[in-house]
Amino acid sequence: MKLDAKQLRITKPSDEQLAKIIRKPLWIVLDNVLDTYNIGGIFRLAEATTASGVILCGGSETPPSSRIHKAAVGTEEWVPWRYFSSAKEALLELKSQHSELQIIAVEQDKAAVDLDKLNGLIDLGRPVAIVVGHETEGVSREVLDMADMIVEIPMWGVNKSLNVIVSTAIVAYQVLHGGKGSVNRFSLW
């Protein structure tokens, strides 16, 4: 369906519209992601996947922000979000509310599992937090150490990394379509 600019930028959802959204047990955690266009793009992804929320951490800018709003095309109004001073703090809070939370860090690391091996390892009957990191430095070591799994996207070309939005989208859709189990609705916080 082709939408015009006005349809793409519906910015103020009603409480009734928000209440009708059935959220998946998926959170996207931004560990010090600094580029506001990346942040806005991740809000668009979170809205498209009906994620339970976006968690902004560290130096990540938060809404309201005209730069986030422009990239998010208003989806930051539709997706629940919270801010924490660190991704570790955010994940500990999520884990305290969802004891079965699976933490997946997206990073190039010697302990990483190739994305194609993720199939069947994720149980969507359990909540999932996908953590992505700073555009240059990546996911912090303390978060990598607490992750249940580190996932790396295979790179076959000369380039050895992808934009944080692209990486997040690839892993999110793999989790949602490749995982086993049913999608359950969980309370947000």
Automatic annotation (TrEMBL):
Keywords: Methyltransferase, Transferase. GO terms for cellular component: cytosol. GO terms for molecular function: RNA binding; RNA methyltransferase activity. One of its GO terms (biological process) is RNA processing. Residues 26-173 form the tRNA/rRNA methyltransferase SpoU type domain. The keyword Oxidoreductase does not apply. InterPro entries: Alpha/beta_knot_MTases, rRNA_MeTrfase_TrmH, SpoU_MeTrfase, tRNA_m1G_MTases_N. PANTHER family: 23S RRNA (GUANOSINE-2'-O-)-METHYLTRANSFERASE RLMB. This is tRNA/rRNA methyltransferase SpoU type domain-containing protein. It comes from Candidatus Amesbacteria bacterium RIFOXYB1_FULL_44_23.
